[in-house]
Amino acid sequence: MKTSMRINSLCALLTIIISCVSVAWGTGARETETISKTAIPIAPEFRNTRVIRVVDLRANVVQEDIGIRAKNIDTTPKSEYIFTVPRQTEEHVASITAFLRQEPKTALTIEQAGFDSEKEVQLYKITFDDPVKPDAEVRFGVKIAYSHALTPLPAKIPQVARQFVVYKDNIYLYSPYFSDEIKTTLQLPTQVVQSYTGGDHVQHNGNKIVYGPFHSVMPETYDRLRVHYEYTKPLLTVTELVRDLQVSHWGGNLAVEENYKLHHSGAELDAQFSRATYQLTRMVHGQTNVLKDLTFRLPAQARDVYYRDDIGNVSTSHFRNEIESSVLQITPRYPLFGGWNYTWFHGYNVDLANFDRYSQEKDEYILNVNFVDNVYDMSIDKAVVRIVLPEGATNVQVHTPFNVDSIEHKTYYTNFDSTGRYLVILEKHNVVREHEQPIQITYQYSTVRLFQKPLVATAAVFVLFLTSMIFSKMSFTIGPKSDASKKLE
Question: Which of 115, 241, 425, 459 could make a disulfide contact with 408, Cβ separation 3.0–4.6 Å?
Answer without folding.
Answer: 425
